[in-house]
Amino acid sequence: MVVSEDNSIMDIEAFNQAQSKTDQQICDLLRYEIDKNLPDAESKIWHRHPVWFLGGNPTVGYSKLKDCIRLMFWSGASFDEPGLQAGTGKFKDASIRYTDVSMIDIQDLKRWLDKSIKIQWDYKNIYKNKGRLERLK
Q: Which residues of 42-57 are buried (b: 16+ CB within 10 A; e: fewer)?
């Protein structure tokens, strides 16, 4: 179990179970595929959402929005993938939104997860680098 920022005990399973049946199915499939394809990643509740880290760097996570589950890749804007919507601003994030588990294309998801290992921007040290993102090699 993980203690979240508001000191409540929550883990990813609890997060998923707290969702509606439809959203829980989405979250459960995403968690399964992320765990399977990123076996070296550390997962935890971070800023109240499930997030996977590689080398301490946030890589992928999902969150509940008003009308969907959003899957976000911190470095996804650099993946050059038409299925991912780039974020706005100075960050390199990109995401996709799901309202039903049938919308998840497993082959796309696996490809994105593979790219999330190979293409990373250094969010771990963003404060140390005074807000400047640097690409990890």
A: ebbbeeebbbbbbeeb
Which CATH fold would you assign to the domain 2-136? Aspartate Aminotransferase, domain 1 (3.90.1150)
Residues whose CB is less than 8 angstroms from the CB of residue 105 and which lie 6 or more positions away in sequence, other chains included = 83
Is the CB of residue 116 less than 8 Å from the CB of residue 73?
yes
Per-residue pLDDT of the chain (137 residues; tens, 9 = 90+): 444 444 344 699 999 999 999 999 999 999 999 999 999 999 999 999 999 999 899 999 999 999 999 999 999 999 999 999 998 777 889 999 999 999 999 999 999 999 999 988 666 666 676 666 676 77
Q: What is the pTM of this model?
A: 0.86
What residues does each domain of the chain span? 2-136
Helix axes 106-118, 21-37, angle to 10 degrees: 50
